[in-house]
Write a structure and sequence with these properties.
The complex is a heterodimer of chains A (321) and B (251). With 321 residues, chain A is an alpha/beta fold. Chain A folds into 2 domains: 6-178, Rossmann fold; 203-319, Rossmann fold. Chain A has helices at residues 23-31, 45-49, 72-85, 97-109, 214-228, 236-240, 271-277, 306-319; strands spanning 6-9, 35-41, 59-63, 90-94, 114-118, 120-122, 127-132, 137-143, 148-152, 169-171, 183-190, 203-207, 231-234, 261-265, 282-287, 300-303. In chain A, strands 5-9-4-1-2-3-10 form a 7-stranded parallel β-sheet, sandwiched between helices. A 5-stranded parallel β-sheet of chain A has the order 13-12-14-15-16. A 3-stranded antiparallel β-sheet of chain A has the order 6-7-8. In chain A, β12, α5 (214-228) and β13 form a beta-alpha-beta unit. The radius of gyration of chain A is 21 Å and the shape is elongated. Chain A starts with 5 loop residues before the first strand and ends with a helix. With 251 residues, chain B is α/β, with parallel strands linked by helices. Chain B has a single domain (5-213), classed as Rossmann fold (3-Layer(aba) Sandwich). Chain B has 7 helices and 13 strands. Chain B has helices at 37-51, 69-78, 94-108, 127-135, 190-198, 206-209, 237-246; strands at 5-11, 14-16, 33-35, 55-63, 82-86, 112-116, 139-149, 154-161, 164-171, 174-178, 202-204, 217-223, 232-234. The longest helix of chain B is centred in the N-terminal third of the chain and has 15 residues, at 37-51. The N and C termini of chain B lie far apart (66 Å). The chains are: A alpha/beta (321), B alpha/beta (251). At the A-B interface, α3, α4, β5, β7 and β8 of A face α3, α4, β7, β8 and β9 of B. β11 of chain A pairs antiparallel with β9 of chain B.
């Protein structure tokens, strides 16, 4: 197997590669040395072809029916095995529920420490910053071990630029008899939406609890998102009161986003939520409370009732076309 | 005939109260300490499993110096039958914590281990998964529903993922980490708290467990993130649209 310094775990949704997971390529380049990509799944041949132009020393593919679902016990074992075979010292992934489930387990199998949500790589790749306390503090940490596992925050690293050189594919042999079988996949309930993925969208519209009911939330937050071709997000309070589903939650315990434009509707600005949006390029806040903390970090602040202002804004955006 | 799960172990961490904002330049250590909110949810779930008659004993375990005994008492006041504190005042990383917990689990032999998905001070989200890896046990992370099946030999868990919900079955023994929506923890009553004061805390050391760990992560500094400054107030939707087009160039 081709030797490498960094092994990057690629995430996909069984149809295509999740673009944020490619941002780890940029992190690997900053770490220095060679990097290889690792793709696990069942019938992922087509997807593998989309990964050949990122300058990787090789693309390792573990393609087996028994890997159709990302069960942590199996995946961690296959990843740790690949890591050892290619002689890597760093295992890298992008922070998501997929990698947060699997990478720490792989770290334990590799007897390596791990850092979650790495934002910057410093000091010749030996020092890292990461948010703690819901992003209210930034910690600088070093790792005292040669082997290490890192999950990076996609929004803190740029998307990789394509490369004309084609990476070779290496198939990993998977022996189904050796895979653990203490975990079984039962079912999945995913939202089917025409809107872009929350963590990948260029524009995100977020709604808070002042939106009085689910119908209003869908009409105002959804309507504005659709007018801008954006994604929908929500505060924890809006999710807890049933205005929006769980996977819309932005913040410390939800998703961290960094779109070009974030529009906060009726969001006061709890630390929990601000931790998830502060890397957005432009933030617009619309809230009727002039003292709402979100105005302290908004690029543009409009004091007003969302129920009045948002229909007007949707109208104005429609008129510009 | 169904057999209850004999023993559930719940791991919890003492953290600075996340609802008390830390002052600038302060690492947060002076704030009042509480049980990590996600771990509190894990404790609550263990209590509910016991109330359904599905377990006979709940053992709580934490790591830290005697200054965290107040949080140990709070766990006992919630209803944990017995509490172990591994006396260790070092700043430990998740991998060190996982290795210490492995020592406790090998001694206690629970059928189910519950803990929060992450501690709200360090935000690492690693310990449960590392522990499962070290023990070779199944894991279910970010769980919002637990149902014990097949004579308590399996747990059906609903997991919260980026894309929605996922249901998996894990054979016991297993590690399950709690997400926000698993339950709402009960309030501790004053009589419960007074009663817990009289209960003994089983204090052990890593040496007694036969676990030698050195943290491999070194925290060199903490700093406040650069603050975004407040921007421009706009008076109307029309003005906002102009700014977005001409100044921010996002339209």
């Amino acid at each position: 197997m081709t030797k490498t310094n960094t092994l990057i775990l690629i995430e996909h949704d069984r149809q295509q590669v999740k673009r944020p997971s490619l941002h780890a390529v940029t992190a690997a380049q900053q770490l220095g040395g060679d990097y290889s990509l690792l793709l696990l799944g069942s019938a992922v041949g087509e997807m593998a072809k989309s990964l050949l132009g990122y300058g990787a020393a090789s693309l390792l593919v573990a393609d087996h029916a028994e890997l159709a679902e990302p069960l942590a016990d199996r995946y961690a074992l296959v990843i740790a095995d690949a890591f050892q075979k290619c002689g890597a010292t760093t295992l890298l992934g992008t922070s998501s529920t997929f990698s947060k489930d699997i990478l720490p387990r792989a770290a334990a199998l590799l007897d390596a420490p791990m850092l979650t949500d790495v934002m910057t790589i410093e000091g010749n790749g030996n020092s890292f910053t990461r948010p703690i306390n819901a992003g209210s503090m930034i910690a600088t940490v070093q790792l005292g071990s040669e082997r290490r596992v890192l999950s990076i925050r996609a929004s803190a690293f740029a998307a990789p630029t394509g490369n004309t050189a084609v990476s070779p594919i290496e198939q990993l042999a998977v022996d189904a008899a050796l895979l653990p079988n203490g975990m079984q996949f039962v079912s999945r309930e995913e939202r089917i939406s025409d809107r872009p993925d929350l963590t990948e969208a260029r524009v995100v519209v977020g709604g808070g609890r002042p939106l009085k009911d689910k119908e209003t939330f869908d009409r105002l937050v959804g309507g504005l998102a659709d007018a801008l071709g954006g994604a929908i997000g929500a505060t924890r309070a809006a999710v807890d009161t049933g205005l929006a589903p769980n996977d819309y939650q932005i913040g410390q315990t939800g998703k961290v986003i960094a779109p070009d434009l974030y529009i906060a509707l009726g969001i006061s600005g709890a630390i929990q939520h601000l931790a998830g949006i502060k890397d957005s390029r432009v933030i617009i806040a619309i809230n009727k409370d002039p003292d709402a903390p979100i105005f302290q970090m908004a690029t543009y602040a409009l004091v007003g009732d969302v129920h009045q202002v948002v229909p007007e804004l949707i109208e104005a955006l429609r008129d510009r076309e | 005939m169904t057999q209850p799960v004999e023993k559930i172990l719940v791991a919890f961490k003492s953290v600075p109260d996340p609802y008390e904002a830390a002052a600038p330049g302060d690492s947060g250590s002076t704030a009042k300490s509480v049980i990590n909110p996600f771990d509190e949810i894990a404790i609550e779930e263990a209590l509910r499993i016991r109330e359904r008659g599905e377990t006979s004993e709940i053992v709580g375990v934490t790591i830290g110096p005697s200054s965290i005994d107040e949080q140990v008492r709070a766990a006992m006041a919630m209803g944990v039958d017995r509490a172990i504190r591994i006396d260790d005042a070092r700043l430990l990383d998740p991998y060190a914590v996982a290795r210490i917990l492995r020592g406790v689990i090998e001694k206690e032999a629970p059928q189910l281990v519950l803990m929060g998905k992450q501690a709200v001070d360090d935000d690492s989200n690693q310990v449960g998964q590392m522990l499962a890896g070290l023990l070779g046990w199944p894991q279910a992370t970010f769980v919002s529903k637990i149902e014990l099946l097949d004579n308590r030999t399996r747990a059906r868990c609903t997991r919260e993922t980026d894309a929605g919900l996922e249901v998996i079955d894990v054979n016991l023994p297993a590690i399950i980490t709690a997400d926000l929506r698993l339950n709402e923890p009960r309030y501790v009553s004053l009589p419960g708290l007074i009663k817990a004061r009289k209960k003994p805390i089983d204090v052990q050391t890593c040496q007694q467990l036969g676990v030698i760990v050195e943290p491999l992560t070194r925290l060199s500094s903490t700093a406040r993130p650069a603050r975004r400054s407040a921007g421009t107030r706009v008076e109307s939707v029309a003005e906002l649209v102009i700014k977005l087009k001409e100044e921010a160039k996002v339209l």
